[in-house]
């Protein structure tokens, strides 16, 4: 094929290539064949698999440097037909799990009937909408009224669970009905996902991206990190001083605050938001996360990259896959198979027992969440995923060395050797780790109260990010407490923008939302917590309704309809 006259590849040919396991992704009007690159991708295989068959121009452009974008030209195999209509990525098909080594029985559980149910939930309501692109309208998003939701589910349970007979299949039908309702609500309360509307949103988003680049907001303000370093040094020095004076439990408090604060910079480095150099930022992130905190930056990257691409998708986003402890979506009642963990999150008796109380267990679990992160970090480093990073292969041995050093210094030298008694050791570990719950609440705050419905492949990247992410409103002088994580919606739109520039970008995002009619969801910290707790209670009430109907039928043998 001549470089001057690239051939045009129609969608049927691209579908055929994808069916033959070719990883075709569309970027700025060109079809890229990333089959030979996928195992070398530093961001992991899943980041590419979720984009197969889709126009990933926005996702690719915001995640990669100009130099990397130029390198992508070598993977072009031809032009695509315009306008490109996104295909459903194979990873979203039940058949895909066969390639992950899942047994036939597992595939059968994820069979065509369930897919058809979900597809109908996404497609059917779409035809009822007929909106003009980008006409201003006001959408009021009220906080979740749990009492109202409880009454709603109770009053309508006869219709929602008509076919419930106590079996797993009935529970899945019930969950599918709730999914359909949430999808309909999403289609009704957001800009239409027709081609014209979404294209207008994409053009506005790209114009905003260019404006951010033109105004130099991708340039890191290193002076801010100098200020941050003073705060980190003070907290760490305070920890050492208190430890030396044998104020052990107070020193644990200072150490926990040090961990909480310094991880903000690790987050920046993982997004290449400091030097914009992959190697340097990765080493900064590994030193902070692995050496200073005992957490794998590689695990964080692998899960976080997927989280940014398929935000709040119950099947694909690992950040919300927390059953049986928590469920923020009725989808989890169907026992979700995670494409990230290659593991089925079964809805069982444990979930039935814990989820009704998740509103009350939320904060206690967040206080102990760091222990779970230790486990996930080591599981990642011993998994094949940590070795499938191509040019970034060197990160795995560095992480293992750094995390081993952490446990030698913290576990052996500090906890075992320095602390005098078992009581002190246990109290020190608990206090230092529980202090970091501030960070864990901040991380979950922006997503656990947001919608989890998938509106289909036609929805633009920008609309999905804003629909599924909440910002936290706070005064500028409190930014150091939140560490930039209060700008999660802004960050999801532009993940490589340095943290200290996000407040300035926030004003631009507000203007973008006014033009495109996408709701910008920004609430105070207290109200944001109420929204998360409200969502957890809402899902609990869904489950309680199901259980009540199952008990009624077991006792009476009737359908529950009156």
From TrEMBL:
Any Gene Ontology biological process: sphingolipid metabolic process
Protein's UniProt keywords contain Oxidoreductase: yes
GO cellular component, as recorded: membrane
Stored PROSITE patterns: CYTOCHROME_B5_2
Coiled coil: none
Segments crossing the lipid bilayer: 232-258, 278-300, 360-379, 400-419, 425-445
Gene3D superfamilies with a match to the protein in the record: Cytochrome b5-like heme/steroid binding domain (3.10.120.10)
Protein's UniProt name: Delta 8-(E)-sphingolipid desaturase
Protein species of origin: Bimuria novae-zelandiae CBS 107.79
Taxonomic classification: Eukaryota, Fungi, Dikarya, Ascomycota, Pezizomycotina
